[in-house]
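Before drawing any conclusions, I looked closely at one protein's amino acid sequence and its backbone structure tokens, quoted below without any editing.
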Amino acid sequence: MPDPPLPLTPSPAALRREFQDLIVGDLLGPALDEVRREVWNAAGKQGQHAVARDLKNARYAPWKNPGDLTARQEAKLASIAETNKVLCRAYLLKEQLRQVFVLEGAAGVALLDAWLKWARRCRIPSFVKLAKAITEHRGGIEAALIHGLSNARWRA
């Protein structure tokens, strides 16, 4: 009976993408959407129906990568930046965290440190909570950024 094939070892870049998928997809996306919903609800309660309608229709623009935005979505983000500072700050936090995984090694760790400091003091509850969750996984994130190591199971 032949031996089963050995699993392929993922590359360091693949491990960084794995952590990026976990953090950006599973943790960051819901935090950003929670901020958008809070701002939308507050605008509706304050009688700012036009602002609330714009925020309701802006669900996908903040989630997308800047390079993948359509002209309409870019205009929507520009409008958010002018009218809603909290949601704009949440979007900027999202983008800076994405950049942590674009960089490698010490530069990625340094940007992660800066992001954690910013997120802890941003006064956006869902991002403060996210910073705590990322701090709990910091060892694994650093290992992936510096050495390409992970203690997570590789997705087949």
Summary: The chain has a mean pLDDT of 82.
